Amino acid sequence: MSPEIFVDVLRDSLFIVILLVSAIILPSLFVGLIVAIFQAATSINEQTLSFLPRLIVTLLALMFGGHWLVRVIMEYTVDLYQSIPTVVG
Fold first, then answer.
1. pTM, whole model, 2 decimals?
2. Distance between CA 5 and CA 25 in Å, rounded?
3. Residue 54's domain spans which residues?
């Protein structure tokens, strides 16, 4: 296994991880920002007001994007298994 192949596999896997995590985290980040602006404008400092909407949006992102997330990781896994002969040989 040459170092170039190892670097390519590592780069692809890190890209997949960043893509999948950002698909879940970014909607929660935007909702948290909107709730924080709302809390700052109204001077409401309730912790559940900031936590519950982010939790709901994260669960909705998993629910609606779960099929896509599983498909991406399965395609990457199949590509990785199919590239074993070129990596070893």
1. 0.79
2. 30
3. 3-88
